[in-house]
Amino acid sequence: MQFGLYAPIPMATVGSPEVAQAASDALRPLPAGVRDAQFEHGDCLLAAADKAGFELCLFAERHLGQDLAAWVMACAIASRLDHIRALVAVHPGLLDPVMIAKLAASLDRVCKGRMAINIVNGWFDEEFRMFGGRVLEGEPRYQRTAEFIAILRGLWANETFSFAGAHYNVDTGRLLLKPASPTPPEIYSVSRGGRGRDFIAEHCEWWFIDYPKTAETTDDVLRGIEAAVADMDARAARFGRKARYALNPFVAMGESAEAALNAMIERVLSVEPDPDPRKIEQRMMPATKAGCVGTPAQVLAQMRRFESLGIELILCKFIPTIENARQIGRELIAPTRRALT
C-alpha cells in the first residue's frame, strides 16, 4: 500500500489557517521578503510528510483561482524531497501537450524520476475559455484527451514524433530533454461513466475510484469499490492492460470516530473566514463515508480492507498540519510497512 497527500492549496484544502490566509492575501502584494503562505506551509508540510513515509503528493490546480500554479509548486518543493512522487494536475484542452511533455520531462529530471501526471478533463468552461479552449462533452472529450496522452508518450519515447489528429497536430516534434527514468511518467485519472472508464482502461495506468453516489454507509462504499475494481479489470483486459487503483478518503484519528469527526468539523469552522456548514457537507462528508475517521486501530483496519479489494494507493485528505502528517506516518504507514517485512 502506498500513501499520498494533497499539496495545501485553496482549491483542495480545508482547515488550514495558512491556506486561508493565502487566499485572503491573493489579490494584494506581499510584504517585502515574505513568501506566499500556501507555499511556506506546503514546503514545511511536505518535508514532514516525506520523512513520515508518504510516497506521493497531488499538486492539484484551479487556474482561475487563488492556487499557486501546480508546476511551480511541484518544482519548488518536490525537487528537494527524497521519497515523494510529484503528481501534477493537467487539463487537456487548456494547455498545449508539447509544452506539457517538456515540463514533465524537466520535472522528472529534477525529482530523480519521480513525477507523474493526473489528467483532469475539466468542467469549468470559464477557465478553459480564458486560455482559448473549451470544455468538451461526449466522445470528443475523451478523443481529445487520448490524443493529448499519445503526444506526451510519443515525444518522451522518440527522437522525433509527428501526430495528426482531430484536436492536435504535431509536425516532427522533438524533445531534446527526455524524462529521467526509462519508464515514462505514469498517467492517473478519475472518471465515473462507462465511456470514461473505457478511456482509463485504454490509456491510463492509475484510476482514482470515485465513491458511489448512492453510498450511505461504509459497507456501501466497500461494495461499490469491489464492483468498480471488477468492472475496470474487465475493461482493461479487453485492451490487454491492467489498471491500478487509488482512493482518496478523508482521514482523521482520535479517541473515537465521533471525537475525530467533531474535532475535524470544529477545526474547519474555526478557520473558515465565513463559516458555512454546507461547505463541510459538500467538500468533506462524502470522503468520510470511506470509514477512515476513528481510532488509529479502526482506520488502519479499514486501510487493510481497502488493500484486500485491490487498492494500492491511499491519497489522504486530512487537515494539513505537520502533526497530522506525522500521525498518519506513525499509525498507518509504519504498521503497513512492518506488515510487509
Q: What descriptors fit this protein?
A:
two-stranded antiparallel ribbon; 341 residues; TIM Barrel; globular; 12 strands
Describe the protein.
The protein has 341 residues and is of the alpha/beta class. It has one domain (2-340): TIM Barrel (Alpha-Beta Barrel). It has helices spanning 17-25, 37-52, 70-78, 97-110, 125-130, 139-157, 194-203, 218-238, 257-271, 277-283, 285-288, 296-308, 322-340, and strands at 2-6, 56-59, 85-90, 115-119, 161-164, 169-173, 187-189, 206-208, 244-247, 252-253, 293-294, 311-316. The chain has an 8-stranded parallel beta barrel with strand order 1-2-3-4-7-8-9-12, surrounded by 4 helices. The longest helix has 21 residues, at 218-238. The radius of gyration is 20 Å and the shape is globular. The two termini are 13 Å apart.
Structural class: alpha/beta
Q: How would you sum up the major sheet?
A: 8 strands, parallel, barrel
Level-2 CATH architecture: Alpha-Beta Barrel
What is the CATH homology-level superfamily? Answer: Luciferase-like domain
| Gross geometry | globular
Q: Write the H/E string, N to C.
A: EHHEHEHEHHEEEHEHEEHHHEHEH
Unreliable stretches (pLDDT < 50, length at least 5) are: none
